[in-house]
Amino acid sequence: MPITPDTAENENKHVAIFGLGFVGLPLALSFAMRGCQVIGVDVNKTLVQELNQGITYHRESYHHTPIQKILRDQLKAKRFYATTDAAEAMAKCDNIIVTVGVPVENGQPSLDHVGAAGRAIAAGLKPGDLVLMRSTLIPGTTRNLVLPILETSGLKAGQDFYLAYSSERIAEGRAFEEFENMPTVVSGIDRTSRDKAMELLSIVTKADLVPASSLEVVETAKVMENISRDVNIAMVNEFARFTKAMGLDIFEVVRIANTHQRVKLLSPGPGVGGYCLPNALHYLAPKADELGVPLPLLRTARQINEQVPGFVVSLVVKHLPVPASRARIAVFGIAMKDFSSDERLSPALDVIGLMRRAGMQVAAYDPVVPTRYDFSVDSLEEAIQDAHGIVVLARQEGIDYCDFALFKSLMSKDGKPFIVDTRNIYIRSKVEKAGFILETL
Fold first, then answer.
1. Which of 87, 122, 268, 365 has its CA 20 to 30 A from that of 402?
2. pLDDT of 9
3. Ordered domains of the chain (ranges, CATH)
4. Phi then psi for 234, rounded to 5 degrees?
């Protein structure tokens, strides 16, 4: 993206982005495209090397320009590069944005990455620096964890440096567009910090910048935004069990219900995946437990969504023409959602894991997800070879879901082949005419 009068005025803005994942990289490039000098910081040496070579596996684009070209253009323009050296970034930049993740293990969130980033920033913090947290956090984390770590620098927040929080609200696959057009909520340790953060974010964001009264308001709102979607998906997943028992098509029922102007049901699927929604309750729960608030509805919704992969497997078992120990299943798509390269916490992995634990042999084809598993195969043909059934868990470009002639020619001749469709791809009459059993949610 060439420098325009608008981007030229940002040339003296130096921005460091800590964390170069699905949020950090497109955010870094969003600033770079607008003329800022951006340094991306990550502890993953391989990732840093690949980025500096112009390699990324993200599925993002901006005005039809893929992120791969954007990355190469910004590297060539010397407006972006990646490093593992936090001290170098801190020495060169006075605007620091943190997008590192908060992983959850066995329901317990870990703030280790946030703490490590905070310590690296504190070691190089300078008077006048702005530190803007954009990670999804347990409410209270910015004030109670990040602030004390940063002040080990000997500098005082609100006096010597600025500290703010602004939640990210992007959907993967629409990052550039949503950084630009999604209303963005901002707060700070004080009003000046908030205003400094809003000034920085206004470089990228054309939509409203919404001030909030405290760090905790924005932290809590972000977690609630994610949990609300988790709860809504749990509701429609329960509806799907009911409509199935009634012999109704849940997708048609949802479409009909959504003609009501005040109803907006989501679609069911094989579960809830990605880094945001499955983890959201676990970010709220520690503070809720501390306050003695039980959250029974939210916890139940999370349990419902965690049970969906098991239900999908039950649909597979229902149609197996052979014992599970002899069954071979083709899986189409392992990403956490349609048209994504991200398989983090993907329900497809849970479905596959359950099938394999039941003794089934699984061959999964996803041409977009770069991670290789021992059940991954390189072609549709390999996936369906000798398979008794097909399980569709994500839509992806590069998969021909309706090549029924190919399926029939390569699949097992034991019993009638079947398809379990969790993504509402197929028309029943066409599938059955082709000689397959169709099972839906």
1. 268
2. 75
3. 5-217 (3.40.50.720), 225-441 (3.40.50.720)
4. -60, -40
